[in-house]
Amino acid sequence: MDRAASLTQTVPGLWQFGRYFWPIIRPQWPLLAVSTLALLADVGLRVLEPWPMKVIFDYVLVPARGDSSARLAPLGAWDPALLLTGAVVAMVALTGLRAVATYWNTVSLAIASSRVMTQVRNQLYRHLQRLSLGYHTRARSGDLIVRVSGDASRLQEVLITAALPLVSSLLTLVGMVVVMIWLDWRLALLSTVTFPLFWLAATRFSQRIRSASLQQRKREGAVAATAAESLAAIKLVQALSLENAFADTFAKQNQRSLSDVVETKRLAAHLERTVDVVIALGTALVLWAGAQLVIRDALTPGDVLVFLSYLKNAFKPVQNFAKYTGRLAKAAASGERILNVMETQPEVRDRPTARPAPILAGALRLEDLWFAYEPGHPVLKGLNLSVQPGQQVAIVGPSGSGKSTLMSLLLRLYDPTAGRVRIDGQDIRDFTLDSLRPQISVVLQESLLFAASIRENIAYGVAGVSQAEIEAAARLANAHDFIAALPQGYDTPVGERGTTLSGGQRQRIAIARAAIRQTPILILDEPTTGLDRASEQAVVDALRQLAQGRTTFLITHDLSLVPQVDHVLYLEQGRVIEQGTHGELLAQNGPYAALFRLRSALREEPSVVSR
Ligand code: ADP
């Protein structure tokens, strides 16, 4: 990710980022205007800094030859004592004003950029959540988290610590060159003789410093990885007596990382000292030529002083050039990572003609439905099905036959490769996602509870529900009694670091969550798997209540739930092998009947399973 980009690659990258987020940046214009004005004031004041010294030199210390140049000639008529006081006061005032300007420059930029980055981060997060499951399956979640938190902050930080000083140094340099030309173009030309030297030193060393520090970071990563790996598997390491082997690897990597650190420091020191020598060279040249011009009365001593001070101050920031450009390159990489996510379109998104779904009745049809996660490997192969509103359908079949995939298509987590899903006669892609998904509720095998109270977990995402409604949903889910028995009742925190509930209890909270939504369509994906018999009964009763009057899809391995449903779909390798009522399929004596008999036998003799 840290490509050693040069400024020519960095600037366009950052520019692109700015253009993409321009709608967020634009409203911050008052702050940005303040910051720019303060920056210009800062540059102006820096250019003026040596001038009080010049006044003291030319009009107080050596007034005899002071007014040979006509630039500040009127000052020659002033009382030297007054001039001295004025110049000294001006010196302090210039520094004071510069402090104020720098302060406002940094602070207003910091506020503006914080606001922008907060919004960038919000947009990024929102966008990430909307990206299809397909994207999230491919991406590493840790990497995405870094993009949301790390990359956004890094961009902001770099703006303040690198872009700002870089721009300000460049502007100061330009200002100083202009003033030098105005004072004496010959001497100005002589001062700029050293420019190419500066440039050469800066660019050459910058490149090397950047690649050395990149190498250093890579090595540090390797050191950390070795440590993390061995510590994570410490049991294995100790059991196999691998401590020494790991310690050797670690020591070697550590040593290499140390040499890289030294190399980076050495290069940085080299650059700094080279810049010092180049400055000395420039100073010597200017002093030599300047003194001659002063003797010939073409310049004043004060002018030479101004030149010398500019030379010293204008080129110091060059020493930090490597640091700034390195940081900018990293920021450009961060910007690129953020843009990458923002420019990824969700695969499942609203069609331009999509309209909000009306309140659905729940009639569902699958028409020659095909789906493949990867092109050429279909997981669902031409499914057809017709379900009346309120009907209950069991989907059974071996693992990997495509049951969960089918449910994902109903929820439009993915779109079909061919064919369609219709609800109430309409292709579900004609509905907006925001109006379709809230009409389908889901109970999964292991229900995830958020780190919040039970009440919030039940009512999550449903606006304006009353306590009575929450309780009614919990009663329907056979959950009210156990919730009421908890010391904090509905306010009990659950989820991460909250009260630990049993699997059956969590499942019943999830059922209450589905119940409160009052959706016409219900998807139950292995809702009883992994529960013990006692909890299972409570969950099954709750599910039965919940499914009343709703078009329900039940994916299950537990075939004892199946006889009560209206329709059974038996899938194998993405195809419907059999369908009909439970009775019809038993009579057909096909694969479903065989599976049902096997499961019933196992269920009646649980010891067979456990043995
Ligand atoms: P079931 O629910 O019947 O066990 P699934 O619908 O989970 O079956 O899986 C059907 C097939 O699709 C399996 O072969 C599985 O490996 C594959 N599959 C499931 N999810 C993905 C995915 N995100 N990417 C690629 N293949 C997948």
What does this structure look like?
The protein has 611 residues and is of the alpha/beta class. The chain has two domains: 11-342, ABC transporter transmembrane region fold (Up-down Bundle); 364-602, P-loop containing nucleotide triphosphate hydrolases (Rossmann fold, 3-Layer(aba) Sandwich). It has helices at residues 7-20, 22-25, 29-48, 51-61, 63-66, 80-130, 133-138, 141-183, 185-192, 195-232, 234-239, 243-295, 301-315, 321-342, 403-410, 433-436, 454-459, 467-476, 480-485, 503-516, 533-547, 582-588, 591-604, 606-610; strands spanning 364-372, 378-387, 392-396, 418-423, 426-427, 440-443, 521-525, 551-555, 567-572, 575-580. Strands 6-7-8-3-9-10 form a six-stranded mixed sheet, sandwiched between helices. A four-stranded antiparallel sheet has the order 2-1-4-5, covered by helices on one side. A hairpin with a 5-residue loop joins strand 1 (364-372) and strand 2 (378-387). The longest helix is centred in the middle third of the chain and has 53 residues, at 243-295. It is elongated and about 120 Å long. The chain starts with 6 loop residues before the first helix and ends with a helix. Adenosine-5'-diphosphate is lined by residues 137, 373, 379, 399-405.
Give a summary of the structure in a few sentences.
With 611 residues, the chain is an alpha/beta fold.
Q: In this structure, how is the largest beta sheet organized?
A: 6 strands, mixed
Q: Give the overall shape, derived from the CA principal axes.
A: elongated
CATH C-level name of the largest domain: Mainly Alpha
Number of domains: 2
Helix content: 55-70%
Query: Care to count the β-strands?
Result: 10
User: At CATH's second level, what is the architecture of the largest domain?
Assistant: Up-down Bundle
Present as ligands are: adenosine-5'-diphosphate
